[in-house]
Amino acid sequence: MRKPMIAGNWKMNKNRDEALQFIYNVNQEVPGKEFVDTVIASQDPVLRDLVKRQGDNLRIAAQNMHEKTEGAFTGETSAELLENLGVAYVIIGHSERRAYYNESDASVNKKLHQAFRYGLTPILCVGESLETREAGETDMFVKGQIKEALKGLGSEQVKELVIAYEPIWAIGTGKTASADQANETIGVIRESVSALYDASVSDMTRILYGGSVKPANIDELIAKEDIDGALVGGASLDPKSFLTLVEAAAPKK
Ligand code: 13P
User: Fold this and answer.
1) Sorting pLDDT into bands at 50, 70 and 90, what band is 253?
2) Domain range for residue 26?
3) For the chain, what is the domain count?
4) Could you tell me the pTM of the whole model?
């Protein structure tokens, strides 16, 4: 019922030539959008170039945006500008932004509201540190992140929202959460959306897994009931490996 999604998060990688080359390489190969939503999140300065060259089955995302509409916020990008550029999605609250740029649950919440105001679909990231997992507090922690992030959002917005569960200890480390671990915590996230809204909402919300996803582990992850796709860093940089992930997520006919 939920359409799978594979979103590549390039982070601060690829110059303009490399970014354009990637899009040329994958455009013709991406499976139909009736099967899987395929998204690439690039650095801001090439967003427009990529939007202009995106094929029918590919959409472009920003990796962050500011919560305010406009003003004296040097170095920031507004939701309005992203919308003007034709960007479809925006990643909000990635753990790297939370860790290095002090993003709080409160600012994540404001950004979600602002993204919806400008017709952008947010990809909300949540996930625990190794310390939190080892203390057995993962469920409580992610529930708290979800509750704070979704404050004031309506059911229709939450149905459209994409959530990415990215355990911090699995990002860029080569350590993937096992498919069972990922499915279990994603189940907890879905339950908390259901408790805040109801099951008709949480049944629609797509929840991705992120953290060292690669061609070798995608099949096992995507086979799990609650995992609707992946948010992928390192393995999204190479067109071949990215396409393998997208093809694995497209339902087999
Ligand atoms: P890796 O796939 O490189 O572990 O990164 C995951 C991630 O942070 C995607 O947003």
Assistant:
1) very low
2) 5-249
3) 1
4) 0.97
